[in-house]
């Protein structure tokens, strides 16, 4: 084998090694790099879509939705079995109780009376768990996971936030904050559904 071929092979191997250790980012939204894939309960999930929640002219948070399979409709996402993840990366500081109120308002705006009644207790616990921290700061990461054997598990910067909330109907109500008929941000809904 010639020296030239050996150098080409070494260069190719070196490039492959470099690529394998770099994080895999699928998108950059709001200046935040969003991972292409995550693992939840040992199961790989793929980024379904990512976008930015904007209120008036202010960017509030970047968000990614992770599923086992790509889905383009809210009903298909809610019906999908297996774990799911919502990742929220704060782009500005917000009082925790204010963030909780906007989440609950979005949940209520996208649920009928029967749906609200079914998850009322879990909705109150969800809102209350945000009071354990005074503010969420720029760069903080909130994850909202659906774990079929456990329920909705919320974390702030990798630390548990409140207790697990067991009902799948509650997680679907949470998803409707962004994917319902009256989403908190229409452009974000489209982005989470994988619209290009």
List the SSEs and their pairings.
Blueprint: H1 3-21, E1 25-29, E2 32-35, E3 37-40, E4 43-55, E5 58-67, H2 74-79, E6 84-90, E7 94-95, H3 96-109, H4 113-118, H5 120-129, E8 135-136, E9 141-147, E10 151-156, E11 159-160, H6 168-179, H7 186-192
Antiparallel strand pairs: 1-2, 3-4, 4-5, 5-6, 6-9, 7-8, 9-10, 10-11
Q: Count the helices. How many?
A: 7
CATH class reads: Alpha Beta
Number of strands: 11
Instruction: Please report which band the strand proportion falls in: under 5%, 5-15%, 15-25%, 25-35%, 35-45% or over 45%.
Output: 25-35%
Structural class label:
alpha+beta
Sum up the overall morphology in one term.
Answer: globular
Domain count? 1
* Helicity level: 25-40%
Quote the CATH topology. Chalcone isomerase
Averaged pLDDT: 89
What is the helix/strand order? HEEEEEHEEHHHEEEEHH
Q: Which residues form runs of ≥5 with pLDDT under 50?
A: 10-24
Radius of gyration: 19 Å
CATH architecture: 3-Layer(bba) Sandwich
**Spatial separation of the terminal alpha carbons:** 47 Å
Strand order across the biggest sheet? 3-4-5-6-9-10-11
Keywords: Lipoprotein, Membrane, Signal, Transmembrane
Pfam families: Chalcone_3 (PF16036)
GO molecular function, one term: intramolecular lyase activity
Signal peptide: 1-26
């Amino acid at each position: 084998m010639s020296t030239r071929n050996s150098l080409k092979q070494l260069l190719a191997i070196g490039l492959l090694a470099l690529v394998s250790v770099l994080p895999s980012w699928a998108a950059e939204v709001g200046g935040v790099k969003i991972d292409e894939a995550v693992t939840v309960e040992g199961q790989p999930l793929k980024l379904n879509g990512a976008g930015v929640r904007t209120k008036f002219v202010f960017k509030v948070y970047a968000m990614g939705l992770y599923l086992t399979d790509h889905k383009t409709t809210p009903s298909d996402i809610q019906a999908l079995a297996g774990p799911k993840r919502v990742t929220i990366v704060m782009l500005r500081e917000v009082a925790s109780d204010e963030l909780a109120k906007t989440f609950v308002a979005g949940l209520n705006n996208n649920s009928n009376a029967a749906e609200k009644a079914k998850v009322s207790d879990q909705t109150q616990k969800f809102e209350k768990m945000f009071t354990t921290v005074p503010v969420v700061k720029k760069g903080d990461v909130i994850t909202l996971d659906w774990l079929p054997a456990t329920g909705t598990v919320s974390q702030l910067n990798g630390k548990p936030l409140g207790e697990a909330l067991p009902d799948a109907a509650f997680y679907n109500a949470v998803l409707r904050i962004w994917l319902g008929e009256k989403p908190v941000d229409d452009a974000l809904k489209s982005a989470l559904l994988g619209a290009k």
